[in-house]
Amino acid sequence: MKVIRVSDYAELSRKAADLIAEEIREKPDCVLGLATGSTPEGTYKQLVAEYEAGKLDFSRVRTVNLDEYRGLPGSHPQSYRYFMDTHLFSRININKKNTFIPDGLAPEKEECEEYEKRILSLGGIDLQLLGLGRNGHIGFNEPGTSFIMETHPVKLTSSTIQANARLFNDPEEVPRRAVTMGIGTIMSAREILLIVNGEDKAEALQKALYGPVTPSCPASILQDHPALTVIADEEAFREIQACGS
Ligand code: F6R
Fold first, then answer.
1. pLDDT digits over 27-79, tens only?
2. Burial, 124: exposed, middle or buried (Cβ in 10 Å; 0-12, 13-18, 19+)?
């Protein structure tokens, strides 16, 4: 595991974007696994800036996203498809046909099987970007999820529903279900980049990196990945400093 400690969110975003840009330059048709949420927003902004400066070409890049809410069409402002289009895809020269996100309206079981086949047909994921949930989740793999799962439907926990309610007009609107890549799918990526910022993630980060590898902290399995890079800011490192790990 390579751990990169940065002072703040701006530096985290720059460093994460640099690593993704390096992957694209080395392999112009790479398959990027992408995440939504607050953490990667700055990274995507940096990637857009690199593209606008003429330093990055996305024309052959393929992407697969981690997850999508059930029941929201891609046109819904809180769907993950909408998030990716507005923060990244519509602002760079990627071919939208090469961007894949689970379809929140398709029949659940079939969609999960199709998504897993899609990833295989692309040749697997070269670099998977991950954020970290406060309860240690990755994707929508909540505590207790088996480490060998492939893409599957999930019922969201109340803590995740609560955390995501800030983005909806009415907390009642937050979908209760989602489709997510499984931990098995995530672990099959050739490289993983975990980005974490803020004090509210400090406990989860400590458990993920230095706690026991256990389904009660889904991200702890990342300790077993052969090519994991973690970029986290000082605030997220607070618990790790405190216990001297
Ligand atoms: C998003 C995802 C989630 C988030 C996590 C952290 O596609 O899969 O696991 O990465 O909930 O979210 P933020 O970055 O909003 O704190």
1. 999 999 999 999 999 999 999 999 999 999 999 999 999 999 999 999 999 99
2. middle
pTM: 0.96
- Catalytic option among 135, 141, 164, 197: 135
**Number of residues assigned to the chain:** 245
Is residue 35 within 6 Å of ligand 1 at its C-beta?
Answer: yes
Is 152 catalytic? The answer is no
197 is catalytic: no
Question: Domains of the chain, with CATH numbers?
Answer: 2-243 (3.40.50.1360)
Annotation marks residue 137 as catalytic: yes
Q: Which atom of ligand 1 has the smallest separation from the CA of 131?
A: 10
Q: How do residues 77-89 score in pLDDT, each as one tens digit?
A: 999 999 999 999 9
d(CA 186, CA 203) in angstroms, rounded, equals 22
Q: How does strand 127-130 pair with strand 191-196?
A: parallel
CA distance 222 to 189: 11
